[in-house]
C-alpha cells in the first residue's frame, strides 16, 4: 500500500512540475512576442535612418586614373577605366572607410572584361580581387558575398580625381517596406539576439 501511495504521489508531483514548466514556456512565448514588439518599436527610427543611407554609395578618390562609365546594373552598362586611386568609401552593404583601388575594365551593354583589386583598406571596407570576362551574373562570389551590388545603378568619372555614385534598388525597396515594419533584406539592427 505504501508503494502504491508513493507511486501515486510521485506521479502527481511529476504532473504538477510538468504543468508548471509548460505554463512557464507559454509565459516565455508571450514575453518573447512582447519583447519583439518592443524591440521593433525602439529600433524603428534608427533602422529607418540606417536604411536611408543604405540607398546610395559614394566613393571619392584621386590618383593616376582615368574612368568614365554608367551602369544600369552589372547586366548593362557602357564604360571603361584604368589606373590606381586612393579612395574614401561609403560603400554598399554598410561599409565605410578608405581603400586603394587599382586595375582596368571595359564594358559595353551586357559584356565586359576587367581585372580590379581593392586592397590596403581601413574600416570595414572589404578587400577583393575580381577578374571577369564576358557577362557578369548575380551568382558570382563578389555579388553573392555582398562585396559589390549586382543591381546597383552607378555613375563613375575620373581624370586624376574620381567620383563614383551608386543607387541600390533593393535597398530602396527595403527602406520603403521598413516603413511598414517589414525587413525585406533581413538587415535591421536588433536589441535582442535571436
Structural class: alpha+beta
Overall shape: elongated
What count of domains describes the coordinates? 2
Count of separate DSSP helical elements = 3
| Mean pLDDT over all positions | 88
Question: Biggest sheet, in brief?
Answer: 7 strands, antiparallel
In percent, how helical is the residue content? 25-40%
Listing every helix as H and every strand as E from the N terminus to the C terminus, the arrangement reads HEEEEEEHEH
Taking Cα atoms only, what radius of gyration do you get, to the nearest Å? 27 Å
Tell me how many strands there are: 7
Q: End-to-end span in angstroms?
A: 51 Å
- Strand content is 35-45%
Low-confidence stretches: none
Question: Can you characterise this structure?
Answer:
The protein contains 3 helices and 7 strands. The chain is of the alpha+beta class. It has 2 domains: 2-53 and 173-179; 56-167, no CATH class. Strands 1, 2, 3, 4, 5, 6 and 7 form a 7-stranded antiparallel β-sheet that branches. Helix 1 crosses helix 3. The longest helix is centred in the first third of the chain and has 53 residues, at 2-54.
Amino acid at each position: 500500500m505504501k508503494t502504491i501511495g508513493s507511486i501515486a504521489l510521485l506521479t502527481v508531483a511529476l504532473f504538477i512540475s510538468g504543468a508548471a514548466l509548460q505554463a512557464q514556456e507559454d509565459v516565455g512565448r508571450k514575453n518573447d512576442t512582447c519583447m519583439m514588439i518592443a524591440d521593433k518599436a525602439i529600433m524603428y527610427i534608427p533602422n529607418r535612418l540606417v536604411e536611408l543611407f543604405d540607398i546610395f554609395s559614394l566613393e571619392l578618390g584621386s590618383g593616376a586614373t582615368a574612368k568614365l562609365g554608367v551602369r544600369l546594373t552589372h547586366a548593362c552598362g557602357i564604360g571603361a577605366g584604368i589606373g590606381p586611386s586612393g579612395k574614401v568609401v561609403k560603400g554598399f552593404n554598410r561599409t565605410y572607410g578608405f581603400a586603394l583601388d587599382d586595375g582596368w575594365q571595359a564594358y559595353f551593354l551586357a559584356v565586359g572584361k576587367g581585372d580590379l583589386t581593392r586592397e590596403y583598406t581601413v574600416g570595414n571596407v572589404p578587400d577583393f580581387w575580381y577578374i571577369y570576362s564576358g557577362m557578369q551574373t548575380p551568382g558570382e562570389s563578389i555579388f553573392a558575398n555582398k562585396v559589390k551590388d549586382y543591381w546597383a545603378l552607378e555613375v563613375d568619372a575620373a581624370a586624376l580625381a574620381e567620383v563614383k555614385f551608386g543607387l541600390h534598388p533593393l535597398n530602396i525597396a527595403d527602406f520603403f517596406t521598413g516603413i511598414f515594419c517589414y525587413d525585406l533584406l533581413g538587415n535591421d539592427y536588433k536589441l535582442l539576439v535571436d
